[in-house]
Amino acid sequence: MEEEEQDNQTDTDMSFIGLLEPSFDDEVSEFLLQQVGTGYQREARKASKAIVSEIYSPPRVTELLRKNQGRHRRLLPGYALDLTVNDPLDDKPWDFNREDKRERARHLLRRQKPYMLIGSPACTAFTTWQFLNAAKAPDLRVIERTKQEAIEHMKFVVSLYYEQIEGGRYFIHEHPLSASSWQIPVINELAEVPGVQQVRGDQCQYGAEIVRGEHTGDPIMKPTRFMTNSPMVAAALSKTCNNDRGH
Q: What secondary structure, in 3-state letters, does the chain show?
């Protein structure tokens, strides 16, 4: 009963989700919101508002929505579930290594049924640097355990994407273009689902810039791969760099 009351409160009061962290992805988030809002308007659904939620991401898109409700009147900020954010039920982080936190997140999202679910699981275990670290690591078991945990996180978030598809809703999955996570079997299987697309987008095309140091303000490419079942979002996030005057 207590959890039910807490859920009812958070359906309208989302102040618990924390603060927006600076990120190269902020420009992409703003552009993405524009595309999601346009797509929702074109679909002419009966409901007047669409909810956008995030998982494995600090409040980014949801926070932009909250700050700019006048510009995105058709979109509402939903949940942002991430290790950097505390669950209001027990004031503990959303640690998805814990089964109870995974099930609670699943419960919340099933109640909310977001129009768009955006997933950005940590990519550290799938990067080139991780392979280099493994070559020098004194205990490979630690590296392997970290990678297996990351794969379990990926399986969990993919299961939520399937729920979005089965419910006639949308998802966006984001990881660096070169991340080895794109070769995980559950990701490959999801990519084969009818209507799901993968596209490359270079974030310099969406305004991403270096934010510190002597090159502050210069564009930064940051090649990214997006997987989604929204054709409009896939088209919008597929701009790539042509090295024209550094942009």
A: CHHHHHHHHHHHCCHHHCCCCCCCCHHHHHHHHHHHHHHHHHHCCCCCCEEEEEECCCCCHHHHHHHCCCCCCCEEEEEEECCCCEECCCCEECCCCCHHHHHHHHHHHHHHCCCEEEECCCCHHHCHHHHHHHHHCCCHHHHHHHHHHHHHHHHHHHHHHHHHHHCCCEEEEEEECCCHHHHCHHHHHHHCCCCCEEEEEEHHHHCCECCCCCCCCCECCCEEEEEECCHHHHHHCCCCCCCCCCC
CATH, residue 53: 3.40.50
Q: How far apart are CA 139 and CA 49, in angstroms?
A: 51
Does the residue 159 lie in any domain? Answer: yes
Question: Is residue 167 predicted with pLDDT exceeding 90?
Answer: yes
CB 177 within 8 A of CB 223: yes
Judge whether 188 and 158 are in contact, CB under 8 Å. no
8 A C-beta contact, residue 117 and residue 171: yes
Domain count, the chain: 1
Q: Supply the pTM of this predicted model.
A: 0.79
Q: What is the mean pLDDT of residues 167-176?
A: 93
d(CA 94, CA 90): 10
**Number of Cβ within a 10 Å radius of residue 152:** 12
Which domain, by its residues, includes 54?
25-41+49-236
Q: What are phi and psi of 60, to 5 degrees?
A: -130, -70
Rounded CA separation 202/28 (Å):
10
More confident residue, 41 or 1: 41
Query: Please, are residues 222 and 208 in contact by the beta-carbon 8 Å criterion?
Result: yes
